[in-house]
Design a protein that fits this description.
The structure holds 2 protein chains of 2 kinds. By secondary structure, chain A is of the alpha/beta class. Chain A is built from 14 helices and 15 strands. Chain A folds into 2 domains: 3-168, VC0802-like; 180-388, Rossmann fold (3-Layer(aba) Sandwich). Chain B has 13 helices and 13 strands. Chain B has helices at 14-25, 35-55, 68-82, 96-107, 125-131, 154-164, 185-188, 237-248, 253-270, 297-306, 326-330, 335-339, 352-373, and strands at residues 2-3, 62-65, 87-91, 111-115, 136-142, 169-173, 192-196, 207-211, 274-277, 287-292, 309-310, 312-313, 341-345. The chains are: A alpha/beta, B alpha/beta.
Chain lengths: 397, 374
C-alpha cells in the first residue's frame, strides 16, 4: 500500500493572524531539511503537512523531520481511495502486522469532504468493526485504548494511520521565526544544551568559542566544531567564531590576582561575544550557566560577568541540575562528544581558590591593570570563522 | 618540521612507497591460480624472506599480520586456547595490546602474574623466578619499552625460565626494537616475536609474527586457510611489499645514539627540574623520555608543535585517555613527573641542528610555561 507522511505542528496553530507566516517558514525549513531527497511533494491542509516521497526514502525522511523545530509529531499513513469499503480494507491491511492480539484500540475519524457518504462517527464505527473482524484477538476500548487508529477523508484521498507509526517531533517554533542569538560554546556539556533550548524557540544561532593554543589542542577545537555540527543538524547551519584567547589569559594570569582570574576571563568572553553578536545582528547572547554550578556561576559572580553586556544574556539552564542537563545532552546527541577528554581553556587557567562572592568594584579594579580594549581588539581581529553544516566532512587541514 | 615521534610511527621510506605502488598496480590476489595471483604470491614470498633474514629465522616461521597488536593478540589468545596449563606471566609495563588480552584471560579464570620493574624500568628478575611454576604456559615480556626505551634482558629471562621448565613458551614484543636493536632469536630462544612495519619506515596495517613451532598455538583468525592456516584472510599485499623493502634499508643506530646523547645532555644540563626516565645502561638509542616537573606535558607538546617540533606525551596510544602512564607509575615516578613526561623518539632524518634547535626551544618554552603555571 502506498504510504505518506503526515506532519503535525503544535504551537503555531495558536498564532492567530500570523499563523500563515509561521506555516510558510516551517514549510521552507522542511524543504531545506529534505533537500538531499529528490521527489518530495509537500502540501498543507487543515494544520497538517502532507509529505509524499518514494517508499525507500520514508524512514530517512521521517528521521530528518524529527530534528526540524516546530513539528510536534510525524506519522506514516496508508493511502487509499475515498470509499468506505476501500478505507475498511486499507485499515485492516495496513494494521494487520502492527496491531497484535490482545492490544486494545479505538478508531477516530475525520472528514474534510463533507459530501462523503458517511459522517465521522459512522466512519469510525465501520472501520472499527472491520478491524475488529479482520485482525484476530484485538480488543475495542473507546475510553483508554493502547492504540489510537485514525481514518481521515480528505478531498483527494483517504488516509489510515495509528499511534504505532507516530514519532514525536522536537516541538518548539520554526527556525528563523525568532531572530538570531550568539551562543558561547565551550567543549563542555552545558553550552550545547543551552544553545539547543534557545534554537528550539525558533532562534538561529551563531557560536563563539575561545581557543587557547597551545594550552588547548587542535583536537579540542575539532571537538567544538563537532558539537556545533551536531547542533546545526537542528538548524541547517551555524557560523562558528573561533577567538584566539591565549594572550588574554596569559595577561590576566600575569597581572591580576589569581582568585579573580576566572571572572575576569569570563568578562572578556562576554565582551568579545557581544561584539560578535552585534556584527551578526544577534539580539542576545546565550550561555550554559546554571546558578551555583561552579564558583563563577554564583549569583554574585553572574552579576559581575553580566554587567559588561548591554544586550540580554539568555541562560536557559539557569535553574537546572547537572543531571537534568546531562539527560538533555544525551537526548540531543551532544553528550558523548562533550565528554571527550581534551582540555578546554576553562580547565587550564583555574585558580585554586576562586572568589565565590565577588564585588563588582573589586573585580573592576583588578581588571584595570590590563589594556582591556587593546586586548579585545587584537582578539577580534584574529577571529577565524568556520561555517558548520550537518553533513560537513572533516577538511583535513 | 622536526619529527621526534618515531616511536609512534615513522615516515615510509622511498623504497617502501615504491614497492607499495607496484603492488597496488599488480593488484592480484595471491591465492588466485592465474599469473596475477602468482605475481602477488611472489611479492609476499620475497617480503617474507626479507623479514625472516632480519629476524634470523626461516621463511616459514614468519606469519604476516595486521600489525603489532594482532601479533600480540595472536600469541596470547592462541597459546591460551591450545595449552592445558592455566598460568601466564607478563610485566606491568607492557603495551596495552599485551596487557588487555591478559586481563581478558584473567577475567576468564586464568592465573596471570604481572611482574614489576625497578626505577630504571627493568623487569625484576627475582620476582620473575619466584612466579614461574610448572603450570606456567607463557611468559610475555617486551624487548624495548615504547615509553622509556629501556631494554629488557631477553636472554637472561629465557635462562630463568629454563631453570624452571624449558617447555614454557616465551614471547617477545619486539615492535620497538625490530630493525633497530640487533637481537638473535636463536641466542634468546624466543618462541614468538611480534614486529610491526610502520615503526621501521613501512606502512601502517602490516606486521609479522615469528612462530617457532606452529603446534604451540591455535590461530585466532580462521577462514580461507591462507599463510598455512596460521592467519586466514587475503594478505595485505601492498603493506607486505612495503614491509619487505623497508626492512632491507640500512639503519645507522650509532648516528641516532649520538643524537640522543646530545638531546639528553642538552636538556639535562640546561633546564632545571627535569628528570630522565629510563636506564643509563640498557636503553634504545631511538627513545628518550624526560619529565619536565611542574608542567603539563600536553601543553608543552602543543607549544613545541607551534615551533614545528613533534613529540609525544607518554605513548600515543594512551594519550587519548586522561590516565597517567602505567609505565612511569610502575617505575615509581611522582605524579608531577608523570604529568610532565615527554617522549622524544628519534629518526634517521634528524640532524644535529634539529637537536640543537629543539633544546633551545625547550629552554625558552619550558621557562615561559613555568612562569604562567606557577
Amino acid at each position: 500500500m502506498k504510504e505518506i507522511i503526515l506532519v503535525k505542528y503544535g504551537e503555531i496553530i495558536l498564532k492567530g493572524g500570523n499563523r500563515p507566516v509561521f506555516e510558510r517558514v516551517l514549510i521552507k525549513n522542511i524543504r531545506n531539511a529534505l533537500k538531499e531527497f529528490s521527489d518530495i511533494k509537500i502540501t498543507i491542509a487543515q494544520a497538517t503537512i502532507y509529505i509524499d516521497t518514494p517508499e525507500e526514502n520514508i524512514d530517512d525522511v521521517c528521521d530528518r523531520l524529527s530534528r526540524v523545530f516546530g513539528i510536534v509529531s510525524i506519522s506514516r499513513a496508508g493511502v487509499c481511495e475515498k470509499s468506505i469499503e476501500s478505507i475498511k480494507k486499507a485499515a485492516v491491511e495496513y494494521l494487520s502486522n502492527k496491531l497484535k492480539a490482545g492490544m486494545s484500540f479505538k478508531v477516530e475519524a475525520k472528514r474534510s469532504d463533507k459530501r462523503f457518504e458517511l459522517n465521522s462517527i459512522q466512519i469510525a464505527q465501520q472501520v472499527g468493526g472491520a478491524i475488529h473482524e479482520g485482525i484476530e484477538g484485538v480488543i475495542v476500548d473507546v475510553h483508554n485504548p493502547q492504540v489510537l487508529v485514525r481514518a481521515e477523508v480528505r478531498d483527494d484521498a483517504a488516509y489510515v494511520y495509528s499511534t504505532l507509526d507516530k514519532i514525536n517531533g522536537r516541538g518548539g517554533m520554526p527556525t528563523g521565526t525568532g531572530g538570531i542569538a550568539t551562543l558561547l560554546l565551550s567543549g563542555g556539556i552545558d553550552s550545547p544544551v543551552a544553545g539547543y533550548m534557545i534554537a528550539k524557540r525558533g532562534v538561529e544561532l551563531n557560536a563563539v568559542n575561545f581557543f587557547s593554543f597551545p594550552y588547548t589542542s587542535d583536537r579540542a577545537k575539532e571537538k567544538v566544531v563537532e558539537l556545533a555540527r551536531i547542533l546545526s543538524g537542528y538548524l541547517t547551519k551555524i557560523n562558528l567564531y573561533v577567538v584566539p584567547f591565549t594572550e588574554i589569559q596569559l595577561e590576566i594570569r600575569d597581572k591580576c590576582p589569581e582568585e579573580h582570574m576566572t571572572l575576569i576571563m569570563r568578562r572578556f568572553m562576554m565582551k568579545i561575544s557581544e561584539i560578535v553578536a552585534k556584527k551578526t545582528k544577534s539580539a542576545a547572547l546565550i550561555t550554559g550557566e546554571s546558578v551555583g554550578q561552579v564558583a563563577s556561576q554564583t549569583l554574585a559572580a553572574l552579576n559581575v560577568t553580566n554587567s559588561v553586556c548591554e544586550i540580554p544574556v539568555l541562560r536557559p539552564l539557569v535553574g537546572m541540575d547537572k543531571d537534568e542537563i546531562i539527560e538533555r545532552a544525551r537526548d540531543i546527541g551532544t553528550f558523548e562528544t562533550s565528554i571527550l577528554p581534551y582540555e578546554d581553556c576553562c580547565t587550564v587557567f583555574t585558580p585554586k581558590h576562586p572568589t565565590t562572592n565577588p564585588k563588582l568594584e573589586i573585580i573592576e579594579r583588578s581588571e584595570a591593570a590590563l589594556d582591556v580594549d587593546g586586548l579585545i581588539e587584537k582578539a577580534v581581529e584574529g577571529i577565524e570563522i568556520i561555517e558548520v553544516y550537518p553533513d560537513m566532512e572533516d577538511n583535513n587541514d | 618540521m622536526i619529527y621526534l615521534d618515531n616511536a609512534a610511527t615513522t615516515k615510509p621510506c622511498e623504497s617502501a612507497v615504491k614497492a607499495a605502488l607496484a603492488a597496488v598496480e599488480g593488484f592480484g590476489n595471491p591465492s588466485s591460480l592465474h599469473r596475477m595471483g602468482l605475481e602477488a604470491e611472489k611479492t609476499i614470498k620475497n617480503s617474507r624472506k626479507a623479514v625472516a633474514d632480519a629476524l634470523g629465522c626461516r621463511d616459514d616461521e614468519v606469519v604476516f599480520t595486521s600489525g603489532g597488536t594482532e601479533s600480540n593478540n595472536t600469541v596470547i589468545f592462541g597459546v591460551a586456547s591450545r595449552t592445558k596449563k592455566r598460568h601466564l606471566i607478563t610485566s606491568v609495563i607492557e603495551h596495552p595490546s599485551v596487557l588487555e588480552p591478559f586481563k581478558q584471560l584473567e577475567r576468564d579464570g586464568w592465573r596471570v602474574d604481572y611482574i614489576g620493574v625497578d626505577s630504571n624500568g627493568k623487569v625484576r628478575m627475582d620476582e620473575l623466578s619466584q612466579k614461574l611454576d610448572n603450570d606456567t604456559a607463557l611468559v610475555s615480556i617486551m624487548h624495548v619499552n615504547n615509553e622509556t626505551g629501556t631494554i629488557q634482558p631477553a636472554e637472561e629471562i629465557r635462562n630463568i625460565i629454563n631453570n624452571v621448565d624449558e617447555s614454557i613458551l616465551f614471547h617477545i614484543d619486539a615492535v620497538q626494537s625490530f630493525g633497530k636493536i640487533p637481537f638473535s632469536l636463536k641466542k634468546i630462544g624466543a618462541d614468538f616475536v611480534s614486529v610491526s612495519a610502520h615503526k621501521i619506515n613501512g606502512l601502517k596495517g602490516t606486521g609479522a609474527l615469528y612462530i617457532k613451532n606452529k603446534n604451540t598455538l591455535n590461530p585466532i583468525i580462521v577462514g580461507g586457510g591462507q599463510q598455512k592456516n596460521m592467519r586466514s584472510g587475503t594478505e595485505n599485499v601492498v603493506g607486505i611489499a612495503a614491509f619487505g623493502s623497508a626492512v632491507k634499508e640500512k639503519r645507522d643506530s650509532e648516528y641516532v645514539r649520538m643524537l640522543r646523547e646530545r638531546l639528553k645532555d642538552g636538556i639535562l644540563s640546561n633546564i632545571p627540574d627535569v628528570r630522565y626516565n629510563g636506564s643509563n645502561e640498557e636503553f634504545s638509542p631511538y627513545i628518550l623520555n624526560v619529565s619536565f616537573v611542574g608542567i603539563k606535558a600536553e601543553i608543552l607538546l602543543h607549544t613545541l608543535e607551534s615551533s614545528g617540533i613533534y613529540v609525544s606525551t607518554g605513548s600515543a596510544c594512551s594519550s587519548n585517555k586522561p590516565m597517567p602512564s602505567h609505565v612511569l607509575t610502575a617505575m615509581g615516578c611522582s605524579r608531577e613527573e608523570i604529568m610532565g613526561a615527554i617522549r622524544f623518539s628519534i629518526g634517521y632524518d634528524i640532524t644535529l641542528d634539529d637537536i640543537d634547535f629543539t633544546v633551545a626551544t625547550l629552554c625558552d618554552k619550558v621557562a615561559e610555561i613555568r612562569k604562567y603555571m606557577r
